[in-house]
Amino acid sequence: MRPTATAVAATAAALRAAFFAPPVAASRLLPPRRVLLLPLHCLSSSYSSSAVPPCASPSDSQPPPLPALMDAQFESFRAQLDGSSALRDRIRAVVSEVESASRAATAALLLVHQPVPLADVLGKAKLQVEVIKGLYSQLAEILKECPGQYYRYHGDWRTETQTVVSMLAFTHWLETGGLLTHAEAQEKLGLSSGEFGLDVEDYLTGLCFMSSDFPRYVVNRVTSGDYDCPRKVLSFLTDLHASFRMLNLRNDFLRKKFDGVKYDLRRVEEVFYDVKIRGLVPGESKQEVAQS
Amino acid sequence: MVPLRVCHRLVRLRGVPSSLHHPVPTTITMAAPQPGCKTLRPSISSRNSSPHPLLLLPRTRTPHFLSAFSLSAALSPASTAGPAPKRFRTMATDAAAPPASAGCSAMKAEFARHTEYLNTLNDKRERLVKASRDVTMNSKKVIFQVHRISRNNKEEVLSKAENDLAAVVNQHIGKLVKELHGTDFWKLRRAYTFGVQEYIEAATFCRFCKTGTLLSLDEINDSLLALSDKSVEPLQINVLDYLLGVADLSGELMRLAIGRISDGEVEYAKDICSFVRDIYRELTLLVPLMDDNNEMKKKMEVMLQSVVKIENACFSVHVRGSEYIPMLGSSAEPDYAFFGGADYD
Q1: What residues of A are in contact with residue B122 (Cβ under 8 Å)?
Q2: ipTM of the complex in this document
């Protein structure tokens, strides 16, 4: 590189000399150009030293070629980024398994829309939850190799986690009629709040996904004769919606999903109204309806 | 029944404890989802021991029927005229209370925790964005300053620029350092990454003008270590932000090169050209390995255009140099005006 650089400098100098008839101008030009040119060649052994002054001396010191010094730094970058993209590939592999297990669980849960005994449906779903729990612990293991970078790769498992949380919360409601709390959700997935935890926003988005199952569930339950279901679902969903209203959300994805919850609530209210107005609610006397 | 279309903002009361109980036996909710909807469906919900809904509405705009919810809760003792609401109210009082009241308050307590968490997170994000904007602005000022360099005032311009850069680090990056702890570095990266990229651009630009070398990431991080004391976690810029900043640097170097050519310092421009070529070459290999590299891919396109512009400018000078006829008695500043200014945009 150095010979070519000096050759370039020589030709440039020759061109200049040819142009500038007044020699005064040439001589005034040359030293400043040297000043600018030489720092490039003046690179001493440690390019990292910030104290390299613009060398004014006309003698060129032995210049290490510039690309090599840049190369060293970029080599290390390449190694780092290779490592992180390999990690990312492993994470993606595990996450795709999570996605397939979660899909199996959701498919099993779809049976609740048909008159199938609840215990069977939940049994199948629980099996898948065990699988998913194992996969999340695998993820936690992978991430142990790079502590503190949970959120660097978080985007890779975010949507799957949200789907899993929604499935878990729905299962929990079918079993107990209550809300799956954040701590319980973490426990079910075998995660801890320490290194690899369940992100709160993922949990909340999962709850919003869960609420979209309710309108369809309520409709099918009423069709198959369970007239008490709408009341329970309505009270649960109203409480959930009221709790969500306590949050101050930015205009992001979670906010949009929360806005969807109120439409689910409205549909459940409509089903409840239909059942109520026709006196189908168990324990309602037909007398009061007759008053209308 | 009068459709309630009022949508008003209610003052958000933070941290309303769940012990704030207003015994409201029943309330009537009017669901009016669309403005054009004429009929209202009354639905009944029982709120035996829950906080009054009015107090819990967020400050943000609430949709129609939710505000109707709150209004109806306020108005239910004096509901609008008509036999129908009265009848439903009578029915409601006879309806069995749903059993979930205890669950409801537990839910509220849980969500109160989530509210706290989200509030702190969003406040921190806001502060980071503000600090990052300050860093960006001041770094840009440094860059403009360095652009005013010419062969005469190089030393003073560079020393002033370095002082300003140090000020940026101390004041504004100090603010970033204070906010970021633990997982925040990656979690909130989007909030501060632009500021950091601008700072890297300014710092590398200054260094290049001074010594012609590329300021390395380790050096930057070492200088940042000095910034924070032992108790606070230091801000260590990560590889991705560094590479994005270096990609922006090429644009500034292009402007510098064109400026130097029009000042007559053709050699300097050629050095810049080879420097930028090297950076482009190195970065090409790294781009596919970076996370979320859409941004970086766009920057690489821009970088290639910058390189081409510099190369074309050097080419013009080189080829058309023979056309230059010096005027007698001209000053030391050669006039390249007729090299075709339109070529350098």
Answers
A1: 248, 250
A2: 0.71
